[in-house]
Amino acid sequence: MLPDLKLVIRLQEVDNRLTDLTREISALPKHIAEIEKKLVAHDRKLEADRAALAANQKERKKCDADIQAQEQKISKLKDQMLEAKTNEVYRAFQNEIDFCQKEIRKYEDRILELMSESEPLDRNVKAAEVALKDEKAQVEAEKQQARERTAVDQKESADLHLERREIVAGITPAVYQRYTRVCKMRRGIGIAEAVDGRCSVCNMSMRLQFFQELRKGDQVMACESCLRILYYNPPQAVDDLAGAPAAQG
Fold first, then answer.
1. Between the chain's N and C termini, which has fewer beta carbons within 10 Å?
2. DSSP H/E element including 199
3. CA nearest 29: which of 171, 179, 146?
């Protein structure tokens, strides 16, 4: 095989790996952003549950205060009833007391409702706090893994770029220009193996004469269909030793 072809084959391998590394390096920050976005959403949900629980407790305290105010009012009304001069005044005081007692019952009923509402809210808050703590630890671990993976990928990428420059320096300029041009046209794949008389990438059959010329391996040739540089690997002879006589001792 021509030296240029060997170098271009390796160049394609390097370029493929560099493409994968570039994709992986750029994908890691996006992955971190996604899990952080999910974490923020869970954090906001926890804050909403905390706010709902705080509002519940605030309303319960207000109801307690309103009950105390009504009870104080009833106490004053009862004192005033003792000084009532007529039945009408007495009944007016009694009506006010009845109204205050209804208000107390209303506040007591609301407190019971708030208590039943607060129990699941309190459980949700406590469970969310534990889950969020675990999730934050997991996110930090993933971020650390991403930073370590990025560092490894960047190191490999730098080494491959160095190797690529050395490969390019050894390739005939015209061959490298052809490879580069075809890569731009064909989604980064500039070379293909000829297998069974076909281009292994575009799968088009080759003319018999063309394939025979390619098999000689004395010139750089390109697929007549996709224009990718072609190379041919002759089949390797394998000795069949299955029937060989055993060595005599």
1. C
2. strand 198-199
3. 146
pLDDT digit string, tens, across residues 56-85: 999 999 999 999 999 999 999 888 888 888
**pLDDT confidence of 108, banded at 50, 70, 90?**
very high
Q: Which domains does the chain have, with CATH numbers?
A: 14-169 (1.10.287.1490), 173-231 (no CATH)
Calculate the average pLDDT of the chain. 89
Q: Which two tokens stand for residue 8?
A: 């271009």
Nearest to 190 by CA among 210, 211, 207, 167: 167
Contact predicate 157/35, CB 8 Å: no
Q: Where are the alpha helices (DSSP H) in 82-172?
A: 87-170
User: Does residue 114 contact residue 60 with C-beta atoms inside 8 Å?
Assistant: yes
Question: CA torsion angle for 50, 51, 55, 60 (degrees, to 10)?
Answer: 10
